[in-house]
């Protein structure tokens, strides 16, 4: 069975580049006189670095740094992922705020192992071994649910302060380690939030695409059924009639055959028109897609329940307007609430996000190809298109008014 999730290609490398901060530990251990303290410390340092890179690269939030790649089989995944056997397809349904139970267990085991390996460096590296606490805090913030990660980071700060204040030989080391732990936790937490948002945006785009494809397939299937079902029925009846008339009324049989040819050509033209219209979209489908996309992006949505009152000539234009406006809301606005107001002759999409900083012209940088495309569609159909910041509130407003 093929695993459809992209293989993490660069996550391990991004984790590894931060290992240079362990140079302080390495320098202290190398300067330690030969003995068990030095040997054990260097071995523990190497093991600590390996565990940190492998575990952090495996964390599901961290994989937002990777790019899409072709699907790979579980056998191919195994060579680069030492934890591949720990994760089953069911594990992929992790909730947005943290990893599932099995991955969380792996993170806790890794944190305990990293703590032990860090402690083994103390005899040789002394207070420099506290640098390991920075990496442990970063791993906890990235891999555990947010509250648990914060609890681990606070515990590590307290542990560092206790050791620095109680061990006589460590009192001169200062309190930079505690500050480093705090900064690492804040930075990693921010990265995690950004990656969560990126993942949700990707899911929203995929959902929009899937709904659009499903709706288009259903539309084409219905149109082909209506076109071919009716046309082939009439063709069959006329063919039977022409066959019976061949021996009775040759002129009338020829007339029926001419009608038969005309019907066949009309049916072929209708099928071609349907095929050429495959890029069209439906208004109900875009409303449903908008609901899914906004929900995936944690945007509260106020959407119309139906589009029956909208004339057929306006539906495709309004559907494109909703699609582009919702895409911009999900991508750029940072909005918490969005609404779509639909009438027979206009559609208005409003959000409470950051806005753009004024009206968006057709050629202005930042207006986007999508909004420029909507403006062109509106001009071709004689409609009026307006897009810009809301006048008396924060956010953005898109309005498409079709001619009456």
UniProtKB/TrEMBL annotation:
Keywords, A to Z?
Kinase, Membrane, Transferase, Transmembrane, Transmembrane helix, Two-component regulatory system
Show where the Signal transduction histidine kinase subgroup 3 dimerisation and phosphoacceptor domain sits: 216-279
Segments traversing the membrane: 12-30, 36-57, 105-122, 176-195
Q: Which Pfam families would you find in this protein's record?
A: HisKA_3
The record ties this protein, via InterPro entries, to:
HATPase_C_sf, Sensor_HK_TwoCompSys, Sig_transdc_His_kin_sub3_dim/P
GO MF annotations for this entry? phosphorelay sensor kinase activity; protein dimerization activity
GO cellular component annotations of the record:
membrane
Q: In terms of domain of life, where is this protein from? A: Bacteria
Q: Which PANTHER family match?
A: NITRATE/NITRITE SENSOR PROTEIN NARX-RELATED, SENSOR HISTIDINE KINASE DESK
* Name recorded for this polypeptide: Two-component system sensor histidine kinase DesK
Q: Which organism is it from?
A: Actinoplanes lutulentus
């Amino acid at each position: 069975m093929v695993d459809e999730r992209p293989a993490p290609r660069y996550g391990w490398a991004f984790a590894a580049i931060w290992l240079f901060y362990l140079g302080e530990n390495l320098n202290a251990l190398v300067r330690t006189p030969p003995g068990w303290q030095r040997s054990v410390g260097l071995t523990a340092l190497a093991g600590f670095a390996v565990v940190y890179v492998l575990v952090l690269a495996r964390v599901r939030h961290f994989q937002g740094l990777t790019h899409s790649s072709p699907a790979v089989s579980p056998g191919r995944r195994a060579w680069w992922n030492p934890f591949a056997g720990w994760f089953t397809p069911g594990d992929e349904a992790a909730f947005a705020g943290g990893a599932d139970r099995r991955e969380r267990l792996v993170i806790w085991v890794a944190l305990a192992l990293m703590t032990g390996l860090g402690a083994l460096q103390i005899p040789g590296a002394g207070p420099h071994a506290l640098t390991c606490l920075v990496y442990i805090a970063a791993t906890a913030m990235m891999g555990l649910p947010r509250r648990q990660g914060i609890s681990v980071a606070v515990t590590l700060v307290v542990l560092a302060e206790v050791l620095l204040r109680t061990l006589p030989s460590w009192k001169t080391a200062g309190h930079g380690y505690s500050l480093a732990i705090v900064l690492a936790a804040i930075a990693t937490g921010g990265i995690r939030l950004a990656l969560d948002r990126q993942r949700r945006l990707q899911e929203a785009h995929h959902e929009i695409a899937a709904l659009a494809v499903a709706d288009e397939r259903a539309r084409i299937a219905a149109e082909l059924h209506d076109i071919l079902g009716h046309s082939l029925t009439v063709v069959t009846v006329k063919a039977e009639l022409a066959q019976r008339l061949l021996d009775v009324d040759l002129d009338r049989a020829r007339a029926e055959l001419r009608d038969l040819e005309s019907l066949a050509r009309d049916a072929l033209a209708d099928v071609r028109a349907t095929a050429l219209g495959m890029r069209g979209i439906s208004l109900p489908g875009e409303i449903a897609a908008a609901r899914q996309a906004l929900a995936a992006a944690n945007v509260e949505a106020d959407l119309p329940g139906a589009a029956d009152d909208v004339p057929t000539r306006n539906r495709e234009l309004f559907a494109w307007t909703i699609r582009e406006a919702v895409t911009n809301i999900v991508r750029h606005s940072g909005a918490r609430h969005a609404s779509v107001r639909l009438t027979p002759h206009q559609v208005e999409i409003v959000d409470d996000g950051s806005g753009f900083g004024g009206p968006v012209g057709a050629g202005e940088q930042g207006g986007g190809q999508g909004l420029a495309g909507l403006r062109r569609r509106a001009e071709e159909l004689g409609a009026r298109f307006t897009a810009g910041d809301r006048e008396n509130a924060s956010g953005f407003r898109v309005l498409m008014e079709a001619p009456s």
